[in-house]
Design brief:
This protein is mainly α. It has eight helices and no strands.
Length: about 240
């Protein structure tokens, strides 16, 4: 059995950089959702505020303010989903014509790699973009579910269904936000994957930069310090 020549297109350095990319992506994703108890992530802290939102929502009259907030959240998911579709279309065009990308890379003196290697590099970035698209689409749908649940919450605080339905809306809202945040991280790592266009060292460098940026925003940012002030209690409504 003859092994195709392009099977060996990835050098050991390329493979190591790829492992670092996917390891960092999986690792920071797990850390954000399962942070140390003494240092919760911004994503986890915002869960408190989402529950508090639904707690206050029960007695707010009128509820136009809440509807506007939810509409803004859905618009955000729509924007990013549309951007991902455009990026996927452009990426697929490059995969179908890798010679054009290779010529650009040659003009920038990035080396003369086989066409199949450029295809692999672009497909790697597209993997993250496609994953982000799926997360944004699901997030958009969940925010829609949340809107319906919010509409079903009785106006009367003494109604036995008011608190349970508000809790359901909060849980769906939290799940939608989780998908949205995962989508954003996928976009970050899609940008990191583009560093591979200048070689494995570039991929390792951009992956490290994105990992550090993501960690800082979740665990050491100024916004996190603000969110920690007067933090509402977590738990069921």
């Amino acid at each position: 059995m003859t092994i195709p020549d392009h099977f060996w297109v990835l050098s050991p350095a390329d493979i190591a950089a790829l492992l670092w990319l996917f390891g960092a992506w999986l690792g920071i994703g797990y850390l954000v959702q399962n942070p140390p108890a003494r240092r919760p992530s911004v994503s986890l802290l915002m869960v408190n505020y989402r529950h508090e939102w639904m707690r206050q929502f029960i007695t707010r009259q009128p509820r136009i303010f809440d509807s506007a907030i939810l509409g803004t959240l859905r618009e955000g998911t729509t924007f990013f989903a549309s951007a991902c579709l455009i990026a996927i279309g452009g990426g697929m065009a490059l995969v179908g014509n890798p010679e054009q990308l290779r010529q650009v890379a040659g003009g920038l003196e990035l080396g003369q790699a086989p066409a199949v290697l450029w295809q692999v590099k672009v497909i790697t970035a597209l993997f993250f973009v496609a994953n982000a698209l799926l997360k944004f689409i699901w997030s958009h749908r969940l925010f829609g579910y949340c809107a319906i649940l919010m509409a079903s919450v009785p106006n009367d605080m003494s109604d036995p269904l008011a608190l349970p339905r508000a809790h359901q809306a909060a849980e769906i809202n939290v799940t939608a936000a989780k998908s949205f945040n995962i989508g954003l991280r996928n976009i970050y790592f899609a940008l990191a994957a583009l560093g591979w266009l200048i070689g494995p060292a570039g991929l390792a460098l951009t992956t490290t930069a994105v990992l550090a940026l993501t960690w800082r925003r979740e665990f050491a940012s100024q916004s996190r310090n603000v969110i920690l002030r007067n933090l509402p209690p977590i738990g069921k409504i």
